[in-house]
């Protein structure tokens, strides 16, 4: 009976050791993913800085060009009011200015679209890493719960073994007492 108890204790000890090794492995993986997450986070922050700088420069240039075009259009309209006979030349100038304005606006829109695409790609990568970290955290918690359950089961087995040992001892004492009575 005590060999069976010892085997049971050995088996429980092996399971606990295996659970500890699994926890260490998962912890190492989580730390590795946390380092990768920090690297991606730094890259995203740098990307956002670059996007902001590009957007600010682009916005400033477009704003200056629009302001210049607006000023020129105002002058054209003034000339148009003063010199109605030169309408054809003024109309051509307005068309050219309008085309330049459309071109600048198109460049501005292209820059914004490119920045938005970059941000979306970075965001997708962040979401993917967050999902991986959440899965690993859930795995870690699951393993920790399993380890706690094994420890509880181990404690219950120890108590059961203790109880069985006490019962065996009591039975042995009882048999010894009976043998003593038989001899007397």
TrEMBL record:
InterPro entries, sorted: YkyA-like_sf
Domain of life: Bacteria
Key words, A-Z: Coiled coil
Coiled coil region boundaries: 2-36, 80-181
Name this protein carries in UniProt: Uncharacterized protein
Organism: Caldimicrobium thiodismutans
Classification of source organism: Bacteria, Pseudomonadati, Thermodesulfobacteriota, Thermodesulfobacteria, Thermodesulfobacteriales
């Amino acid at each position: 009976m005590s060999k069976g108890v010892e085997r049971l204790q050995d088996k429980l000890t092996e399971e606990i050791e295996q659970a500890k090794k699994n926890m260490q492995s998962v912890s190492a993986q989580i730390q590795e993913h946390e380092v990768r997450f920090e690297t991606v986070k730094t890259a995203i922050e740098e990307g956002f800085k670059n996007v902001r700088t590009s957007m600010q420069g682009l916005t400033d240039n477009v704003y200056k060009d629009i302001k210049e075009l607006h000023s020129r259009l105002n002058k054209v309209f003034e000339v148009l009011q003063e010199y109605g006979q030169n309408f054809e030349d003024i109309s051509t100038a307005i068309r050219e200015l309008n085309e330049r304005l459309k071109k600048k606006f198109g460049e501005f829109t292209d820059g914004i679209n490119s920045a938005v695409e970059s941000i979306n790609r970075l965001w997708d990568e962040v979401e993917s890493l967050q999902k991986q970290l959440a899965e690993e955290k859930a795995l870690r918690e699951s393993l920790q719960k399993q380890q706690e359950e094994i420890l509880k089961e181990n404690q219950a087995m120890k108590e059961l073994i203790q109880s069985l040992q006490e019962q065996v001892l009591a039975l042995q004492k009882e048999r010894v007492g009976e043998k003593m009575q038989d001899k007397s």
